[in-house]
Amino acid sequence: MLVLGMDTTAVIASVAVAEIDDYIKTYSLFSLKNRLTHSENLMPMVEQVIELFGVKPSELALLAVSVGPGSFTGVRIGVSTVKGLSFASGGGIPCVAVSTLEALAENLSQHTGIICPLMDARRQQFYNALF
Fold first, then answer.
1. Which CATH architecture has domain 2-103?
2. N- or C-end of the chain: fewer Cβ atoms within 10 A?
3. What is the pLDDT at residue 118?
4. Alpha helices in 1-131 (DSSP H)
5. pLDDT of 36
6. Which residues in the chain land under pLDDT 70?
7. Would the pTM of this model clear 0.90, i.e. be above it?
8. Where do the domains of the chain lie?
9. Whole-angstrom Cα Rg for the chain
10. Residue-wise over 21-55: b if at least 16 C-beta within 10 A, else e?
11. According to DSSP H, which parts of 89-129 are helical?
């Protein structure tokens, strides 16, 4: 199954395509650190990562988007882009929302102890969760 995922909740926007069966086989990732321009750069990033991976948009089986915590404007940009891509495909590509902190914690899913991902919330504060 081919999945297109994106995160626009932080200063760095990321877009990835992953081939997932029992585990992630291959992926392409494109990130861009360019403040306040996610709305301008997101679709070119999507086009570039799809081209790098060598797939057609019609081959995507799932669209995933981070829904925070993070920049509320970033969340709206990501969610509206994913919904627009699904709509443009005729509604045939399902969408899924992913917690940014849960996605960070998933990187340590083999760890048996407590996992506490942290994200910069600016103004000397941070977002966190315990898993």
1. 2-Layer Sandwich (3.30)
2. N
3. 94
4. 38-53, 72-88, 100-106
5. 63
6. 26, 34-36
7. no
8. 2-103
9. 15
10. eeeeeeebebebeeeeebbebbeebbeebbeebeb
11. 100-106
